[in-house]
Amino acid sequence: MVGKNCFAIASDRRLGVQLQTVATDFQRVFKIHGKLYIGLSGLASDAQTLYQRLVFKHKLYQLREERDMKPETFASLVSSMLYEKRFGPYFCQPIIAGLGQDDEPFICTMDCIGAKELAKDFVVSGTASESLYGACESMYKPNMEPEELFETISQALLSSVDRDCLSGWGGYVLIVTPTEVQERILKGRMD
Amino acid sequence: WKLKTANGVVIATEKKLPSILVDETSVQKIQSLTPNIGVVYSGMGPDFRVLVRKSRKQAQQYYRLYKETIPVTQLVRETAAVMQEFTQSGGVRPFGVSLLIAGYDDNGPQLYQVDPSGSYFSWKASAMGKNVSNAKTFLEKRYTEDMELDDAIHTAILTLKEGYEGQISANNIEIGVIRADREFKYVYKVNYAVFTAT
Predict the structure, then answer these.
(1) pLDDT value at position B10?
(2) Which of A89, A105, A107, A88 is nearest to A97 (CA)?
């Protein structure tokens, strides 16, 4: 979700195999660099592998170009990497959020073969995506300050995962502003 | 010859044709690699054409991956890597060209020389080929950091004139310019006052 000169990215913490819950502290939101984060929903092993490959590519980019990747560039990179595997895809839907030039927030999502979808307000993905669309649409306001943004995204996340049996077991929210990054763990319905 | 200024880069070369029967419009020593990067060479024309083709492809591959135009330094690095490959692989010979690559990107105007060995250098002003030592001395005297682009074009033409045997005119030199608009332009019409003054 985009706020005023900041963005927030959040996920639930459940890792499960159909009905069985395997972990309640699974990390889905990963850092690429100080102002760029990626959330990967879907198959957990693909999420981890894709993250490792992206970090690899980004580290090489940093060494070659002596700078961090811009969020738009990173989104294009993820899109091309996913489409490379068009006929044997990674089963992940990434969410990319970052602060671009002049700390302008940038968010986008894509499907598992790299179809980019840019948005100005919010992007969602995962098993509870339909509930999330509804919750975000009704709760979102433009130009929210970081504290208000945190409240909004937390409420939207918790209310949507409560409607989905495969999501839940708490929430993890990251608020990123040009000067600092705040991480918070949410306690929701633990079921 | 190549000159970097605060607001652009200019590259220029003489176009020496083997005979007056040659159609001079078919010979182009200055080429663009991307809309904001141009290149000129000294050496073997055919080797230059191969490098231009490879560099253009590399620039496009970068764009396909990142949807961003390739920075000048990255294109220079990749071109230099190709040239180095040909000094170490079996059954091939090194490229018989030195390139001067001029570009304008987010880091401002830049100019690089790439040698057949694959080593590259960034220059504020440079010359290569015939008469290189005289040209460089001339540039050392004439170059200032805060030159305007039009002064730079003038200086480039004068530098060419220094080493040119015979009468210099618009038909036997080529000039390429990149201004702050970041578009590489091949200059077709030049103010002839520079030629008429001795």
Answers:
(1) 86
(2) A107
* Residue B69 vs residues A29, B37, B58, B76, B156: alpha-carbon distances, Å: 29, 10, 11, 13, 28
In chain B, where the domains are located: 13-124+167-191
Q: Say how many domains are in chain A.
A: 1
Q: Give the fold, CATH level 3, of B13-124+167-191.
A: Glutamine Phosphoribosylpyrophosphate, subunit 1, domain 1 (3.60.20)
Please write the tens of the pLDDT for every residue from B88-126: 999 999 999 999 999 988 888 889 999 999 999 998 888
CB contact under 8 Å between B68 and A72, yes or no, is: yes
Residue A191: inside a domain: no
| CATH number of the domain that residue A73 is part of | 3.60.20.10
pLDDT at B189 over 60: no
A171 belongs to a structural domain: yes
Chain A, nearest residue to B70 by Cα: A65
The CA distance from B62 to B82, in Å, is 15
To the nearest whole Å, the CA of A102 is away from the closest chain B CA by 14
Q: Which residues of A touch B (CB under 8 A)?
A: 64-65, 70, 72-73, 76-77, 80
Task: With CA atoms as reference, report the closest residue to B177 among B161, B157, B195.
Answer: B157
Which residues span the domain enclosing A32?
2-186
Percentage helix, strand, coil for chain B under 3-state DSSP, each rounded to 5: 40, 25, 35
CA distances from A113 to A85, A117, B9, B110 (A): 7, 12, 42, 38
Q: What is the complex's ipTM, to 2 decimals?
A: 0.83
The reply to whether residue A73 touches residue B66, judged by beta carbons under 8 angstroms, is: yes
